[in-house]
Amino acid sequence: MKKDLKLSTLCVKAGWEPKNGEPIAVPVYQSTTFKYDNSEEMAMLFDLKKDGYFYSRLQNPTNDAVAKKIAALEGGVGAVLTSSGQAANFYALFNICEAGDHVVASNEIYGGTFNLFGVTLKKLGIECTFVNPEDSEENIMKAFRPNTKAMFGETISNPGCNVLDIEKFAKIAHSNGVPLIVDNTFATPINCRPFEWGCDIVTHSTTKYMDGHAATIGGVVVDSGNFDWDANAKKFPGLCTPDESYHGLTYTKTFGNMAYTTKLVAQIMRDLGSIQSPHNAFLINLGLESLHLRMAQHCKNAQRIAEFLSNDSRVAWVHYCGLENDRNHELAKKYLPNGSCGVIAFGLKGDRETAIKWMDSLELINIVTHVADCRSCVLHPASHTHRQLSDEQLREAGIAPDLIRLSVGIEDSDDILDDIKQALDKI
Ligand SMILES: *Cc1c(COP(=O)(O)O)cnc(C)c1O
Questions:
Q1: CB-based burial, 308-338: b 16+ in 10 Å, e otherwise
Q2: 3.40.309.10, 2.60.40.10, 3.30.1490.20, 3.90.1150.10: which CATH number matches 293-425?
Q3: Residues near 395 by Cβ (< 8 Å), separated by ≥ 6?
Q4: How much distance in Å is there from the Cα of 3 to the middle of ligand 1?
């Protein structure tokens, strides 16, 4: 495919290039395995000496086409689809961490990732130190240890809607000899490409805007190919020293800038197996084909709704980086010049009950756990995802007790606004 194609063209066309007489849509290779004429050929595949398909837990042509499209959108060298966003973040780290290691993560991240890093990884012997991303470089540096293997943040945090200073994080990570991993779920590559700001590995929950239709759970890990593992070989023995499970092959020597991606497939996916189903990959690809159009509409609608909310006397506060007086507006101008996403965080004057009354009065906007979908939807973390926490515990987790997460869809913004207004009149 021609180089330097624009993002919109990549959304529609990257990844699958049909040859003469082949289907124009990505075919669903709904097959566990692939047939070979002789055993020698298959043996070569098992030794990673030849490229090809043999078992869909490792690789599948449908998944590869969709992963290739996402890699092209992010400007990476390789990508791997996973069964969920959770699996993507776990694998992105577990590919370079083991028991006894440590990671540094922003405390402004998705609740599921916060639990994964803070609780579950700990059971595997991997410790995480959470830092306040707005803290000074000097203070964040103090979280690093000799055994630190990665740094992690979210471009736009879920549910807080805070914008990450990616360059600052990349500088800190690199001065400590570790890669920066950024979860780019909310911004999508349409609005931010973290590799352009020094990030090394990008993850997504494709469940959100990439799918966009609330049809499939999925995730992806994308590698920029830029991080020099060998320059920090002592930290990354898994990539820079021989892998016993592949006859002593060394990933960086054999695969160059594809080392990280190859290891993730050949070792982590082989052994842990959270693979995307080819049918789900097909559905994600349908979403990707219109991602550029949907993101523009999400941003346009959300901007209008955020402006309305910020001018309404019943609203206590609004956090949307597209608002000129927002505390993240300067960061947004730098990292998200074309728009951020459809998600707005805001609070109503009153208490938890006021938020519930407003939500229960909505007619068009749905109450769901989901976010970043073509349908407008809403969630009150204090009453739903985080309902076990007291107001104080919520604040410690970086979530205001009155925070309402409004995910603005791509319906007509007149209708969304009318629904918000009529529900406000009922509180
Ligand atoms: C939803 C989400 C995840 C988890 O993804 P799943 O597909 O639900 O497993 C991770 N990160 C962010 C930012 C998310 O919004």
A1: bbbeeeebeebbbbbbeebebbebbeebbee
A2: 3.90.1150.10
A3: 401
A4: 31
Q: Is the CB of 280 under 6 A from ligand 1?
A: no
pLDDT above 70 covers a percentage of the chain that reads 100
Could you tell me if the CB of 86 is within 6 A of ligand 1?
yes
What are the pLDDT digits (tens) for 368-414?
999 999 999 999 988 887 877 788 878 877 788 899 999 999 999 99
Nearest to 206 by CA among 302, 261, 286, 119: 286
Separation of CA 198 and ligand 1 centre (Å): 22
Tell me if 261 sits within 8 A of 304, measured CB to CB.
no
Nearest to 266 by CA among 68, 49, 15: 49
Mutation to probe ligand 1, out of 110, 154, 222 (largest number of atoms < 8 A from CB): 110
pLDDT in tens, 299-315: 999 999 999 999 999 99
**Residue entry with tokens 């609004």:** 318
Ligand 1 atom closest to residue 89's alpha carbon, by position in its atom list: 10
The percentage of residues in the chain with a pLDDT greater than 90, rounded to a whole number, is 88
**Residue of the nearest CA to atom 5 in ligand 1?**
85
* Residue 260 binned pLDDT confidence (cut-offs 50, 70, 90): very high
Considering the domain 17-287 in this protein, what is its CATH number? 3.40.640.10
Tell me the CA distances in angstroms from 211 to 28, 70, 158, 283, 312, one per residue in order: 16, 12, 17, 7, 33
Cα of 1 from ligand 1 centre, angstroms? 31
Among 362, 220, 196, residue whose Cα is nearest residue 281: 220
pLDDT at 414: 98
153 lines ligand 1 (CB under 6 A): no
Q: What is the pLDDT of residues 166-210, one digit of tens each?
A: 999 999 999 999 999 999 999 999 999 999 999 999 999 999 999
* Closest residue by CA, ligand 1 atom 7: 85
Neighbours of 256 (CB within 10 A): 11
Q: Where are the domains of the chain?
A: 17-287, 293-425
